[in-house]
Specification:
single chain, alpha+beta, five-stranded mixed β-sheet, two-stranded antiparallel sheet, 12 helices, 17% strand
Amino acid sequence: MMTSTAPSYAQYCPISRALDVLGERWSLLIARDLFLGTSRFNDLARGLPGLSRSLLAKRLRQFERAGLVDKLGTEYVLTEAGRDLEPILFGLGEWGARWTFGEPRPDERDAALLVWWMHNRLDTTQLPGRRQVLAVRFTDDPRRFWIVVEAGGASVCETDPGYPVDVTISADVTGLYEVWLGRLPLAHAQHTGRVRFIGPHAVTRRMPDVLRLSPVAGYVRATVQQARAS
């Protein structure tokens, strides 16, 4: 049976027991990122920029004690109990897309976080070479980003890695967020110039398949389509 050292709700109910384990701030977002494949402490911290490293360490220890993760070397690996969170996490995503989601607020338009989320969702198998480099340039944020994919893994750089760039993605921050999260069709964003792929045509024409969207984009897209139809 799972146990937690956090204060208990002291109610004999499966929901309250679950909240004893997962009801504290940041817990479900850490579980989200673990489920989506982030397994190293530094990577979890980078994908949760508002979370202090000390609190992240505390939550991960709580997850270990509760039986949600095992720490194997430097990686945190979900147990069967952790993997069983899938319907809860995506259920929250579907509910949120329907009832709480809209245009991004100013404090949510974090360009660095968007690039970090995107880098693990790229499918570069259709692109040539053993290394692919995508530059990301925002029209309303001066920072520059590069995504380097090689040996089956992707990394994000904020300084020039020194490799030739295959494609440059140019977009405003809100536009790329809305595309990636399913609120704005990529074809429409390209037609209106909000998102552009710059590079050889043989490569840029493949970018709609390379740039896989957020795992919750389907829920957001369905909500937008339903709203337009009603």
